[in-house]
Amino acid sequence: MHGAPATMKDPHQPVHPAHWARPRHPHALTAEEAIAALDSSPQGLARSEAAARLAHVGRNALPRVKPPTAAEIFLHQFKSPLIYVLLVAALVSLSLRQWSDAGFIFVVLLINAAIGAFQEYSAERSAEALRDLVSPRARSEREGIAHEISAEELVPGDIVLLESGAKVPSDLRLITAHNLAVDESLLTGESLPIVKNAAAVLERECALGDRLNMAFAGTLVTTGRARGVVVATALDTVLGRIAASVLGRTRSEPPLLLRMARFTNLIAIAVGFAALLVAAVALARGATLAEVFVLGVALAVAAIPEGLPVALTVALAVGMQRMARRNVIVRRLVAVEALGSCTYIASDKTGTLTVNQLTVRRVQFPDQPPWEVTGEGIVPEGTFVLPQGATRAHHEVLLARLVRAAALANEGSLVVRDGGWLGEGDTVDVALLALAHKAGVKPESLEEEAPQIAAIPYESERRFAASLNRFPDGDRAAVKGALETVLAMCDRVATTQGEAPLNTDAVRAQEQALAGEGYRVLALAEGPLALRENQSFSREHLARLTLLGLVAMSDPLRPEARDAVEACYRAGIRVSMVTGDHPVTALAIAHDLGFARDAEAVTGAQIAEVSAESERELDKLIDDARVFARIEPQQKLAIVESLQRSGHFVAVTGDGVNDAPALRAAQVGVAMGAAGTDVARETADIILTDDNFASIVAGVEEGRIAYGNVRKVIFLLVSTGAAEIALFALALAANVPLPLVAAQLLWLNLVTNGVQDVALAFEPAEGDELARPPRPPRERIFDRLMIERVALSALVIGGLAFAAYQWMLGRGYAVEEARNGTLLLMVLFENVQAFNSRSETLSVFRHNPLRNKFLLFGTIAAQLIHIGAMYTPGLREVLGLQPVSPAHWAELLALALVMLLAMETHKRFRARRSRGAP
Q1: 429 given a catalytic annotation
Q2: pTM greater than the 0.85 cutoff
Q3: Can you state the angle between helices 815-836 and 693-734, rounded to 10 degrees?
């Protein structure tokens, strides 16, 4: 009944889906009314009820674009100018009644389309598997217990917990909100975050941007925390209704594929002009129109690298899969190229260079020597080692007050589960809870003795957290945070003789000493605080507190971090550390890593000061620095932009919502998969599943390998195609019959060479990828080295093949027999060229053929396929093949090995020239 109080349902009592309905205007209801309408409770749904609703409404996910059918994928393989030229060639052959040539062209096109369709389908499946690795998560309360679940499992009536940096998983009617601000620019275009008010009840016609008591799916929590009840999921959300209107739109292609598309268009145009030129020459010599068409068909088949699209798809897919095996998930294909080109990595410290397992190592009371704390990680086993002459009984009260404040101003949990200790929440909070246990204080008992009245959660901008608790003798506030922040709240200090006036210089000196040893230092304080009725707990109330002491925590370096940094320097990549920690702490870590032995840390305050004066001075300051400390989010963005102005190709790591601008601005944004926020992961180009700096270096190496393999595949196909054109041109100039017909050229390009180019995409590292300087970002694929190698291949292979063809004609071979020998020679040339393609600089004799078994056995297979075709009825007639003697085969092999000698000579010549040798 209207106006009746909302009745809270028992969360353990399942209800039929028909007993609830999604409220149409949840912003016009109180939180209690919205919960009642959804037949839920403040403790959330029962698990059985959630499962029933999930079956009823479906998963909380937007429908993905309908994948193309097998027929559509197959037909898509024919959408290329190169394929159009070949189709025209096949139709011309049909019109000339050259049935075998036309049939073979059609068969090869069908085989090529089938291979391409299979690769495209495999790539889609691989991409789907990678997306599943970073599926969104949500914290939900069910039956009064908080759990982290897949966001797709949320249903209307679920209670969801939000915190800074999280993406809102569904449309929520807020129940409570503490300093909550949400970036709704995705929906409204409003650039500033919207401050939310859970207590508000609004008009039904309220505009979307004014619904202060709602949080919408897809928006990002910038600050604060909240609880809300799910009122809409999937396509019923505001975002879902927008998404439904844009499903099916095409995605943009990555730059490498766009460049290759331009390349294929240029080849198609070049083939057209060449065909016209050949036609003019042939007609001038008195050739018939039929003969001119035959020439045109052969030229088209020779010039077009038919296997290039399939081989490129394989090379890129192999690169992405190799990166995934090394904990690097590529979200945007452009990052495969870009990561291999980066010249500068700006890395976070915590969790990336370190293991992100904080442990309190020292407790520092004012005017006292520090206490050592033993034990590792979150397991609360350890003791306090007091300085000489001190007794624990004399300091027991101080220690009890300090660990009590540490446990109360705390949002973490540390519990025994399944026989082991499990910590949840921020690593600082978990470390402080472990300290409390070591001191004999049980946090769960504290919650019963002094229940929490209000709290101020930790946010990076405010640099402290506070809790207001009700003790038997009155309300008291406990605070933890950065020393500079906490000192401003204190005017007294706790000592063994009682409270005394605060000596800020002495406390700062203690912090400097601890930070100088690489510790992360936090201050703890407490004091009485009585709020008036209806008064909210805020920063303004935290004054005249008592400083209890300092705790020094350490987060050990990852064992592989130093080697990874050294590998970056060998690869020509500069590394800097960007952190919010104290400069002394940051420098201590940098010294351990070995990249800032004589450097000074540049602070956020220095950047702010210099940026106000001169952009040029700012660029010089940042370019010379290796350690950045006390850096705020916008300053991290300023660092990235400054490095880009200085000519660097920047990769930057980040895990928080505040890192999003820097991740977006960098050429390569790298997000943490384990500890990163949703917004960081969505902004980044690459996700590290293990949050490890060494994985970035592995990604750089794999990026360089992938790009190198793309170049190798292109060289193999283009160089053999250029050789066929050279052979064609020499025959035309000598006015002799064509050395190869269209079907034979297609056999070369797609069957024998097609086996090898795909195998070349699996080429492993050459071993010096991280010993080379970064590739210039704008470097062309067809650079001087590629052009030199292609031209040399065309001259040697084309020239020798034509000489052999002429020799066979001169020895009385019939044209068909000479073509048979020339085709076998070209297959052997391709076999040799496949091994020449393994490296642009290293000798083929320095490559173990067993390191790429695909290429070794692929080359053998290509030769065996051709020999087998000589003995296959039907196929040998189409290709004009006939068996050859072993002696003739050996003669042709010896001639083909001249290409190996020529390419080895070219590599040696370039090596001598690069060393400046005479």
Answers
A1: no
A2: no
A3: 160
